[in-house]
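Students often ask what a holo structure prediction actually looks like on paper. The answer is less mysterious than it sounds. You provide the chain, you provide the ligand, and the output is a string of discrete structure tokens encoding the 3D arrangement of the protein together with magnesium ion.
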Amino acid sequence: YEAKRTGLPIVPFDPALLASVEERIRLEHALETAIERQELRLVYQVIVALDEARPGVSPVVANVEALLRWNSPELGEVAPFAFIPLAEENGRIHALGTWVLDAALEFARRQPGLRVAVNVSAAQLGDDDLVTTVLNALQRSGVQPSQLELEVTETAVLRDLAGATERLAQLHAHGVWITLDDFGTGHSSLAVLCSLPIQKVKLDRFFLKTSLHDPRSEAVLRAMLAMARDLNLAVVAEGIETPEQCEALRRLGFRLGQGYLFGQPLEEAEALKLPVPAPRPG
Ligand code: C2E
Ligand code: MG
Ligand code: MG
Ligand code: MG
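The corresponding structure tokens follow.
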């Protein structure tokens, strides 16, 4: 009532907001020591050849994607979507990114012949030191650049198109593979796509939700595939969960896929046992 008389707006107390602020502070604090306390690990999910994927037959692995996991004693398993954006905001992402590169390249060293894809966030891509950071990590590990693939998102690239293009082109000139992740969810025009130094696109799993029943989304998928082919880009369909999706994608002409149908991300010890793929394009 007093507040009303002074003309100040009455802001109702929102415990949820307070909880989320407290949560954020707790998370940020715990994240500061996550590396030194060895709470991080990578898991590896296979990308498979769809043309050879058959029910009951173990899929042919084309490469793997490294995915970051954080097990905090205080907070439990924290999902990447909960801590990576935070790390981007407070700058921790650079230390995390270097840790991820070193761990993924150590895995690659122990699994020669298997290419490892590493996710690079917007803040890393926007960093002038990205090229040096990646090349230094490669040098430390002794792994060939061609055994490393970097996944960048459309959104991250578009934040600084010229800078990102320059850095990715330099890395590719050294032999590193570059992939556009979550493709189709951003706002890049076809012209932008043509100008990027990428060799592969990963079609966001959003597209799998409708493609099976809607002829119009099927037309979109066909067009994207045709365009990618014309641009000489390999295409991976992300988030394949059912045999029906797999079959539909294969019929459309998709050659590479990733998703729970072929396997959950594997712990390192399991991933080290994966059969090394025969050399193949893409
Ligand atoms: P992403 O790069 O698009 O990775 C694919 C995500 O989809 C992974 O989630 C994976 O576990 C999940 N996934 C795989 N197959 C299926 C499926 O069939 N169905 C469904 N619903 N999901 C599937 P995850 O591991 O939680 O990672 C989420 C995102 O966090 C990643 O998306 C990536 O953007 C980011 N991320 C993960 N690891 C790293 C990292 O080391 N560095 C950076 N900067 N970002 C990372
Ligand atoms: Mg990815
Ligand atoms: Mg993706
Ligand atoms: Mg995604």
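The pocket of C2E (ligand 1) is lined by residues 45, 67-68, 79-81, 84, 100, 119-121, 151, 181-182, 205, 239-241, 258-260, 265 (CB under 6 Å).
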